[in-house]
Amino acid sequence: MTEQEIQGIIARQRAYYASGATHSRKARKEALLALRRGMKKYEAALTEALQTDLGKSAAESYMCEIGLTYSEISWMLGHLRRLMRDRWHCTPLALFPAVSYQSPSPYGTVLVVSPWNYPVLLTLEPLVDALAAGNTVVLKPSAYAPHCAAVLQQLIADCFRPEQVAVVTGGRAENQALLRQRWDLIFFTGGKTVGREVMRQAAEHLTPAVLELGGKSPVIIDASADIASAARRVVFGKYLNCGQTCVAPDYILCHRSVHDRFVEAMKQEITTQYGAEPLQNEHYGKIINQKHFERLCGLIDPDKVVVGGQTQPDRLRIAPTVMVGVTPSDAIMQEEIFGPILPILTFDALDEAIDSIEAQPHPLALYLFAESRQVQRTVMNRCHFGGGCINDVIVHLATSEIPFGGVGESGMGSYHGRQGFETFSHLRSMQKKPRLLDLPIRYQPYSNWKERLLKMFLR
């Protein structure tokens, strides 16, 4: 698609938004229902595309992408009336008589740029929030998941007029052309490098941007942890989608006293969940492309592998892998892994683990396995991270009741549920004042009695 064609789409969307066609609760509800109907119609095609692009099984595709999108739509439909109401606030006596409130207003025409690792969820879930907030939307799915992008394009074209929602496919040229345009909001999910470019381009037009990035999300295994439960949940969260999850456990900080038990429990859980030969498990996914496959293979140190390490280059598959004896200077600790390789480091004192986490950029997620409440409080009080779990992994993003987002280099802004609606809305601060009663204290000429009253009210 040429830049001129992109500009034409944006112009038509701006005109459609200006007409007020997306503003009413009825219009927003109809848009959400249309998206749900479209997803039902194309559900099999989406599942097949996810299997082709990422090797995802039907169960994983529904659990982690399609089903979560349905859940977000249902939540928005159930809460839309309340979300659109004005939010009333107290008014200080100095401004009497008046009422103060916030009024949610759509941003206008917004751009959603999604990644390849969860190409359905991370394209459609922001769309749900944007439609609920009353915007028109341009979607840019990743070129690295071409089959999903093609199905999404068909789905959206079947559900919406291009003036309301449009899909732009393509690669770097289309990305750059989109970012050169003026938007009312940009919502980006992806890596830090591209995130910086999004921010730079957004700054040219002073466009607000929401960035959902990533980082090296740690797992702390405390001496008080339930080791069997920790291993079971870490194996689930780490090797889901072949480790290609922005909030996947990136590395383990394990208390030395439970290290050997935890490693043995991990070995058993990998066998339990994926079989004795995981690469023969058809429900286990694949790496997205050759470039990422080769990068990941370069991070595996055979001398430190205690389980896994096998690969299938022709199918771009890497077995669930655990490495021990890892140090902070190892290559695998220098970048976000984004694959099925899990390094384990040890610590002797909790302060040591916390200091090592805080010395790095703030991660998108942090996971703590500890039965000790004192340990839980200490980690929560001292560590900075986007979100996370105590005694579990990943599941904090699977609900519309709490927001999801990063902090620092792991992102800015958040979404899901109410926060998703507000992310795609501008909350206008309003004050409504009656015409008949107008206190003279603020008007000139000023006098001593007015000054005394000002000092009485404003303190």
How would you describe the shape? globular
Low-confidence parts: none
Quick one: biggest sheet? 7 strands, mixed
- Report strand %: 15-25%
Number of strands: 20
- For the CA atoms, what is the radius of gyration? 25 Å
Please give the share of residues in helix.
40-55%
The strand order across the widest sheet is: 10-13-14-9-8-15-16
Number of helices: 14
For the termini, the CA-CA separation is: 59 Å
The structural class is alpha/beta
Describe the structure concisely for a colleague.
This protein has helices spanning 3-18, 25-54, 58-84, 121-132, 146-159, 172-179, 192-204, 227-239, 259-274, 290-299, 350-358, 373-382, 417-423, 448-457, and strands at residues 87-89, 99-106, 109-113, 136-140, 165-167, 185-189, 209-212, 218-221, 251-255, 305-307, 311-312, 317-318, 321-323, 341-347, 365-369, 387-390, 404-405, 411-412, 414-415, 425-432.
Question: How would you describe this protein?
Answer:
With 459 residues, the chain is of the alpha/beta class. The protein is built from 14 helices and 20 strands. Strand 3, helix 4 and strand 4 form a beta-alpha-beta unit. Helix 8 crosses helix 9. The chain starts with a helix and ends with a helix.
